[in-house]
Design brief:
Number of domains: 1
CATH superfamily: Vaccinia Virus protein VP39
Radius of gyration: 17 Å
Number of strands: 7
Shape: globular
CATH architecture: 3-Layer(aba) Sandwich
CATH topology: Rossmann fold
Order of helices and strands: HHEHEHEEHEHHEHE
Helix content: 25-40%
Strand order of the largest sheet: 3-2-1-4-5-7-6
Number of helices: 8
Largest sheet: 7 strands, mixed
CATH class: Alpha Beta
């Protein structure tokens, strides 16, 4: 097992991460926006219920994309919310939503932006949904998140379970934008190693599904074998280790 990221030794990590901002095309077209609206829907729905439960008043979304789910599910329940991501997503969010604060940030160089007042304060609740697999140096990002938390704060962090989406024999992500992927055992160990206490762990579908879509997808995934499963998005509710 790789001691740095708690991933099995034979796994192949990418040296570079492909980012959408490197494209000349307009990435956030109507098709991509529709896709974004349903992707990680269940993570944000869970975050909404947790924010209500814990009476969180301030939220930081690290990797908010064009911020549809942040505004639809989270904004009505908090006093302050901030979304950070790449330039193209943040430009769309600023042009689309009047509420909230949006910052263009390179998440692989997050410490370079901590002079920004909104990135130097503490938050009651932090969301980091399906982004960590894109980062070359996630240690820096997790250290930043810890500095934005108090002992009463909560973090909801999610990523795909490599074994459930690729199969138990996978040794490298086929997606060029994914530097690495973890299975549940590895990611749990990585979060603990990084200074977090895992409060709860759940598996979720990666996209919002209608009842008909659920059964179609379930039937499709039943025949994949080798450990693969429709519920492959793993979400961890964490607090700081005391």
């Amino acid at each position: 097992m790789d001691n740095k990221y708690c991933i099995k030794e034979e796994y192949i990590h990418r040296n570079e991460n492909y980012t959408f901002d490197s494209d000349d095309r307009n990435f956030w077209n109507s098709r991509r926006l529709e896709q974004h609206a349903v992707t990680q829907w269940y993570e944000y729905s869970w975050a909404k219920s947790l924010i209500e439960k814990f009476k969180a008043k301030t939220v930081l979304d690290v990797g908010c994309g064009p911020a549809f789910k942040l505004n639809r599910l989270i904004a009505p329940h908090v006093e302050q919310f901030v979304g950070i991501d790449q330039k193209s997503a943040i430009e769309y969010a600023k042009q689309t939503y009047n509420a909230g604060h949006y910052l263009d940030v390179d998440l692989d160089r997050i410490s370079d932006f901590e002079n920004e007042p909104l990135l130097s304060q503490k938050y009651d609740f932090i969301i980091h949904a399906a982004v960590i697999e894109h980062l070359k140096e996630p240690d820096q990002l997790l250290s930043f998140i810890k500095r934005r938390m108090t002992l009463a704060s909560h973090l909801l962090i999610s990523t795909c379970d490599r074994d459930r989406v690729r199969g138990i024999h996978n040794m490298m992500s086929p997606k060029p934008e994914h530097v690495r992927e973890w299975n549940a055992h590895e990611f749990y160990a990585y979060m603990v190693q990084s200074g977090f206490k895992v409060v709860k762990f759940v598996y979720l579908p990666p996209n919002r599904l209608t009842k008909d879509d659920f059964w179609k997808e379930t039937n499709k995934w039943m025949w994949k074998g080798d450990g693969r499963c429709l519920f492959y998005e793993m979400a961890f509710l964490c607090r700081l280790s005391e």
